[in-house]
C-alpha cells in the first residue's frame, strides 16, 4: 500500500531549494499556479498570515524553514544573533493563532538548537531539523492513510460516499494529506463511490483546493454548498465524514475549520460516522478542552466581498474561521501513533504516551 500511495503523490505546495523556501500561492489556486520564493523569516511569517501557505501541518513546516532563514540572516548580521532569532521566532509564532503545529514545529527547532554541540554549524543543523520535520510529516500522512483505510474497511467492503470539509490534502501538509490521504487510500482500494467536498465559505478551501486536488487524482468528486450537508447526509449514502484538525485538546475536542462542528452534529443525527485525521503534532495536551483554544477571527471583507467586489450590506461581521467539535461527537481520531475510537481524556493520554516511545 505504501508504494501505491507514494506512486499516487502528485501535488506539492512546499519546497526547500537553494537555501530558500518556495510556496505554491494558495490564494490563486486553482486558476493560477504561482510559486513564491521566500528568502527571510519575515516573508515566511507574512506568507502564513496571508495564507499563501495554509493547513496546520503545512504552516508548521513553513515556519521551521522560516527559522532557518532567520538563523542565516542573524548570523550574517553579527551581534546578538540569538536575540534576533528569538524575535523572529515570536513573529512566526504569532502569524496565526489556532493551529498547534506552528508552535510545535518552532519549539522543536529551538530545542534542537539548544541541544547542539559547540562545534556544530547552526544553520546546517536547523536546516537538517526543518527537513526532518517536513519528511516526518510526509511519513505520518502515509501511516495515517493506511490506518484510516483499515478503519473504513472495518465497516464497509464496497464503495460508498464520503464527505470532507476544508482542505486537508497535499496543499495542507508536507505529504499528500491527512483526511484526503485516507480518502486517496480508500480510492486506490476501490472503496470510494464519490467524495462530496463542502465549498468551505468564506475562503473556499473546499471548492478551490480540495475539489482541484481530488479531480487531479481522478477521484469522483461533487462540490456542495456548505449548507447542503444535512440534506446530503439524509439519504445519499454517505458513510463517513472525514476531516483534518488544527488542534486536538487533551479531552479529545477537535478544533478545525468553521463548519466542522455542524457537520459532526449532522453526522451523529443521521448515523454517519465522523473521522478526524491528524498527526500527533496537532495534539496539544496543554489545552484541556476546546474552549481553551484561541479561535482565529479573520477580516470582515472575507464575508462582505466577493472576488474583490463589495456585495454584502454594511453590518457588523462575525468571522471566526475555526470551531470546536466536542469529543463526544467524534467516532475516531486517526494519528500516526495510533487510532482511538470514541475519544476521551484517558484514551488521549494513552495515545500521547505512545508518541514518546516513537
Ligand atoms: O484556515 P486554513 O485553511 O489554514 O484551515 C485549515 C484547516 O482547517 C484544515 O482542516 C486543518 O488545518 C487540517 S490540514 C491537514
TrEMBL record:
<comment type="similarity">
    <text>Belongs to the EIF-2B alpha/beta/delta subunits family. MtnA subfamily.</text>
</comment>
<dbReference type="InterPro" id="IPR011559">
    <property type="entry name" value="Initiation_fac_2B_a/b/d"/>
</dbReference>
<feature type="binding site">
    <location>
        <position position="205"/>
    </location>
    <ligand>
        <name>substrate</name>
    </ligand>
</feature>
<feature type="binding site">
    <location>
        <position position="96"/>
    </location>
    <ligand>
        <name>substrate</name>
    </ligand>
</feature>
<dbReference type="InterPro" id="IPR037171">
    <property type="entry name" value="NagB/RpiA_transferase-like"/>
</dbReference>
<feature type="binding site">
    <location>
        <begin position="54"/>
        <end position="56"/>
    </location>
    <ligand>
        <name>substrate</name>
    </ligand>
</feature>
<dbReference type="GO" id="GO:0019509">
    <property type="term" value="P:L-methionine salvage from methylthioadenosine"/>
</dbReference>
<feature type="binding site">
    <location>
        <begin position="256"/>
        <end position="257"/>
    </location>
    <ligand>
        <name>substrate</name>
    </ligand>
</feature>
<dbReference type="InterPro" id="IPR042529">
    <property type="entry name" value="IF_2B-like_C"/>
</dbReference>
<dbReference type="InterPro" id="IPR000649">
    <property type="entry name" value="IF-2B-related"/>
</dbReference>
<keyword id="KW-0413">Isomerase</keyword>
<dbReference type="InterPro" id="IPR027363">
    <property type="entry name" value="M1Pi_N"/>
</dbReference>
<comment type="function">
    <text>Catalyzes the interconversion of methylthioribose-1-phosphate (MTR-1-P) into methylthioribulose-1-phosphate (MTRu-1-P). Also catalyzes the interconversion of 5-deoxyribose 1-phosphate and 5-deoxyribulose 1-phosphate. Part of a bifunctional DHAP-shunt salvage pathway for SAM by-products.</text>
</comment>
<comment type="pathway">
    <text>Amino-acid biosynthesis; L-methionine biosynthesis via salvage pathway; L-methionine from S-methyl-5-thio-alpha-D-ribose 1-phosphate: step 1/6.</text>
</comment>
<dbReference type="GO" id="GO:0046523">
    <property type="term" value="F:S-methyl-5-thioribose-1-phosphate isomerase activity"/>
</dbReference>
<protein>
    <recommendedName>
        <fullName>Methylthioribose-1-phosphate isomerase</fullName>
        <ecNumber>5.3.1.23</ecNumber>
    </recommendedName>
</protein>
<keyword id="KW-0028">Amino-acid biosynthesis</keyword>
<dbReference type="Pfam" id="PF01008">
    <property type="entry name" value="IF-2B"/>
</dbReference>
<dbReference type="InterPro" id="IPR005251">
    <property type="entry name" value="IF-M1Pi"/>
</dbReference>
<keyword id="KW-0486">Methionine biosynthesis</keyword>
<feature type="active site" description="Proton donor">
    <location>
        <position position="246"/>
    </location>
</feature>
<feature type="site" description="Transition state stabilizer">
    <location>
        <position position="166"/>
    </location>
</feature>
Amino acid at each position: 500500500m505504501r508504494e501505491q500511495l507514494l506512486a499516487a503523490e502528485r501535488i506539492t505546495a512546499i519546497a526547500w531549494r537553494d537555501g530558500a523556501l518556495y510556496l505554491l500561492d494558495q490564494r490563486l489556486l486553482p486558476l493560477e499556479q504561482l510559486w513564491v520564493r521566500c528568502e527571510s523569516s519575515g516573508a515566511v511569517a507574512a506568507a502564513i498570515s496571508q495564507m499563501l501557505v495554509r493547513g496546520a501541518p503545512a504552516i508548521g513546516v513553513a515556519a521551521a524553514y522560516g527559522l532557518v532563514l532567520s538563523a542565516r540572516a542573524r548570523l550574517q548580521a553579527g551581534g546578538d544573533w540569538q536575540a534576533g532569532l528569538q524575535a523572529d521566532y515570536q513573529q512566526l509564532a504569532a502569524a496565526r493563532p489556532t493551529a498547534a503545529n506552528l508552535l510545535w514545529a518552532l519549539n522543536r527547532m529551538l530545542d534542537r538548537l539548544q541541544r547542539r554541540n559547540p562545534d556544530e554549524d547552526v544553520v546546517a543543523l536547523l536546516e537538517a531539523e526543518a527537513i526532518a520535520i517536513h519528511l516526518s510529516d510526509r511519513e505520518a500522512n502515509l501511516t495515517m492513510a493506511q490506518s484510516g483505510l483499515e478503519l473504513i474497511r472495518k465497516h464497509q467492503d464496497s464503495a460508498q460516499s464520503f464527505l470532507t470539509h476544508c482542505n486537508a490534502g497535499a496543499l495542507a501538509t508536507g505529504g499528500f494529506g491527512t483526511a484526503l490521504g485516507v480518502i486517496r487510500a480508500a480510492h486506490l482500494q476501490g472503496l470510494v463511490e464519490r467524495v462530496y467536498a463542502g465549498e468551505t465559505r468564506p475562503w473556499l478551501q473546499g471548492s478551490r483546493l480540495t475539489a482541484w486536488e481530488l479531480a487531479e487524482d481522478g477521484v469522483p468528486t461533487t462540490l456542495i454548498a456548505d449548507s447542503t450537508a444535512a440534506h446530503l447526509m439524509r439519504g445519499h449514502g454517505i458513510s463517513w465524514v472525514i476531516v483534518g484538525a488544527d488542534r486536538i485538546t487533551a479531552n479529545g475536542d477537535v478544533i478545525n475549520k468553521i463548519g466542522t462542528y455542524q457537520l459532526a452534529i449532522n453526522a451523529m443525527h443521521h448515523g454517519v460516522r465522523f473521522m478526524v485525521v491528524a498527526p500527533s503534532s496537532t495534539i496539544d495536551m496543554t489545552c484541556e478542552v476546546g474552549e481553551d483554544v484561541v479561535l482565529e477571527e479573520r477580516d470582515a471583507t472575507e464575508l462582505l466581498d466577493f472576488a474583490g467586489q463589495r456585495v454584502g450590506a454594511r453590518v457588523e461581521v462575525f468571522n471566526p474561521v475555526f470551531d470546536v467539535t466536542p469529543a463526544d461527537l467524534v467516532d475516531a481520531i486517526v494519528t500516526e501513533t495510533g487510532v482511538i475510537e470514541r475519544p476521551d481524556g484517558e484514551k488521549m493520554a494513552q495515545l500521547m504516551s505512545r508518541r514518546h516511545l516513537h
